[in-house]
Design brief:
This protein is α/β, with parallel strands linked by helices. Helix 4 runs parallel beside helix 5. The chain has one domain. It is built from 6 helices and 11 strands.
Length: about 230
């Protein structure tokens, strides 16, 4: 946990962007984020060849993603925050900082990620706890569409049978990829907990996702935000 301690309030008073993986990213000009502090989630690196920058941080907590993408994750040369359950595939990677994550309800917001971090049914919730720990005053969400065409019981593991229409790239969870169906209801509960945690200390989370369905956080226009 000493490695995590170095990030405590390391960006105090600043703002950051948490980049989700929804299809709205295809309608979002990410070039404006080159000089911003950013969190990339799961397979965000599939976009890196199109961008002239890399996200500042990387976060992954789903073991199916980590297992199937471990070689790609190892190649990333940036701080990588990974659930402790990923040690089986990423042990020995000097860029990895393991988090003691817990996926059991109820959703709790950890203000100190050197202890326990709660998953809240979405990697975005973990990124929000990291952003709080780092001292960010304002967090802007983009690409958090909060909408999926895939149907079935929450958290059920499925195998993709073709192109992925629920993320920014058709090969994100492409044919043959094993993934878990989202639990949007549980993630909304977690987001409300995060909103309260930030606002209780005079900070805020804004949702600048273009066309996103999430209604928990105040909405903001992406292009207005980046001009500030």
């Amino acid at each position: 946990m000493r490695k995590l301690e170095q990030f405590r309030n390391c960006h105090q008073g600043k703002r950051c962007f948490i980049i989700g993986n929804g299809p709205s990213l295809k309608r979002t000009d990410l070039s404006f984020l080159k000089d911003e502090i950013t969190f990339g989630l799961n397979r965000i690196y599939l976009l890196f060849d199109e961008l002239d920058f890399r996200t500042t941080y990387f976060v992954a907590i789903n073991t199916l993603v980590i297992e199937q993408c471990s070689k790609e994750i190892r190649r990333l040369t940036l701080p990588k925050f990974i659930t402790w359950r990923g040690r089986e595939w990423l042990s020995g990677d000097p860029g990895v900082l393991f988090l003691d994550t817990d996926y059991t309800p109820p959703a709790t917001f950890s203000k100190d990620v050197t202890t326990r971090v709660f998953e809240g049914s979405t990697v975005t919730y973990v990124a929000l706890q990291l952003a709080f720990f780092m001292g960010f005053q304002e967090v802007i969400l983009i690409g958090v569409d909060h909408s999926f065409s895939a149907e079935g019981p929450p958290n059920m593991t499925v195998v993709s049978e073709g192109d992925d229409s629920d993320h920014f790239a058709s090969n994100y969870f492409g044919e043959g990829f094993r993934w878990q169906l989202p639990d949007l209801e549980a993630s909304e509960v977690a987001y409300r907990v995060a909103k309260e945690a930030f606002e209780s200390e005079g900070r805020r989370v804004l949702d600048a996702t273009i066309g996103g369905k999430l209604t928990v956080f105040p909405k903001a226009d992406y292009y207005s935000v980046i001009r500030k």
